[in-house]
Amino acid sequence: MTAYGQFCPVAKAMEILDERWTLLVVRELLAGSTHFNELRRGNPRMSPALLTKRLRTLERVGVVRRTGDPSGRTSYRLTECGEELRPIVESLGAWGVRWIGELGTEDLDPHLLLWDIRRTVPVDEWPRSRTVLAFAFDDVPQKVAHWWLVVAGSEPDVCDYDPGFEVTATIRTGLRTMTEIWRGDRSWVDALRAGEVEVVGPDTVRRDLPRWLGQMPLAAVPRPTPIVSPSGQVG
Amino acid sequence: MTAYGQFCPVAKAMEILDERWTLLVVRELLAGSTHFNELRRGNPRMSPALLTKRLRTLERVGVVRRTGDPSGRTSYRLTECGEELRPIVESLGAWGVRWIGELGTEDLDPHLLLWDIRRTVPVDEWPRSRTVLAFAFDDVPQKVAHWWLVVAGSEPDVCDYDPGFEVTATIRTGLRTMTEIWRGDRSWVDALRAGEVEVVGPDTVRRDLPRWLGQMPLAAVPRPTPIVSPSGQVG
DNA sequence: CTGTATCCTCAAGGATACTG
DNA sequence: CAGTATCCTTGAGGATACAG
């Protein structure tokens, strides 16, 4: 928060918002997280001390209000001022998904992926009875390769251990491929055709599964048209 | 540009954009600056080494293209990718002007103010003949208290020394007051009534002067409605 | 005009362990 | 659950001078 020495509103805004992690904490709050550990889960590489510090700053400048919620737990909520950051965070996301397609291996995180999927799972598309999808990622250490997504009732659950229910279908693929599909960088059909995803389960499930999982909301953002030269090469 | 370890497009965008000064350099490019020293003038507290570094990064990620312009001078221009940051920078400005009203003394800078005014002076509103406005700021060191704005033809000029032409009118006020008027935090009439601005010159000029100078574009952004309690106090 | 080159400091923030 | 406490490092970036 070192001052820029400018009266320009953009500079004044950035004094607050350009600090590392700040807008990612706001992103979590916009997505509906309210508790300290929810915010941590959304930003696992952030130390708790730093999260505290950022929340204090955001509170001081009026973006966040810290309250005890009904049950007495501490909870953080965006003020009107903070809520008005929504279009900014959304535009940043749209810009990011359009122009920063290349993901490093560092950017891939199964925990974040599954939690993000869980957040927006279209439960209505799923069968009424308990349904369990198993994920097996073949490009990460065994320890973090297996995940389960359980939909029973209206609340989806994510586990990194076998919850013991019968598995409806298993998705074998790379974490990278699954992430790219989720982000809308490539389509299910494309990945299936390329043999990079294998869905083990009944045909009906294999057909419905893409609709069950869906894609992240930003996946719908149109991508820049690649410039194709007459020779057919991408320029 | 330390990675966040997240595939989220907001995180990927912020890896680039949350570095100190970055979006302020982009702001200058969006405003039409193309040369190294123009970019420096817009961000005087930024060291040239750091500006170089930021420009290299922006070039590497595809936001900026570095070219020699017709005359051979180096020039920096936004790519399509960089141009798409415009709505983001504008939203940040709108948010900043709405929610960060308090300016520290550090934020006041006569050079930046005059250059910003110059940038958008509505020359058509001015007399056809050469017109010179003198600014005398009474709350800053003598050295930086006196400025001249010269409009002759279509190109306005700013000087921090007496250019020698006959002065059409002199504006005596605080740098803070002038900055607040420019930002739209307060109105001319309000500041005049409060006796915080004195315009020395012909009546016609005193009347027209607010229209000559105008306000920064973001001044038009509506401000949050203060919550007024029944007792009349601002909450 | 468009940068390099150096130096220096300091504080941001990552890692880890611990507590009411 | 919601943070503190501590340590440590490293590189970000401010200041200044200089160069092609």
CATH superfamily of the largest domain in chain A: SCP2 sterol-binding domain
The low-confidence runs of chain A, each spanning 5 or more residues with pLDDT under 50, are none
Q: Could you tell me the mean pLDDT of chain A?
A: 94
Please write the CATH class name of the largest domain in chain A: Alpha Beta
- As for the number of domains of chain A, it is 2
Our Rg estimate of chain A from Cα atoms comes to 20 Å
Shape annotation of chain A: globular
Distance between the termini of chain A: 40 Å
Biggest sheet of chain A, in brief? 5 strands, mixed
Strands side by side in the biggest sheet of chain A: 5-4-3-6-7
CATH structural fold name of the largest domain in chain A:
Nonspecific Lipid-transfer Protein, Chain A
Largest inter-chain contact set: A-B, 59 and 59 residues
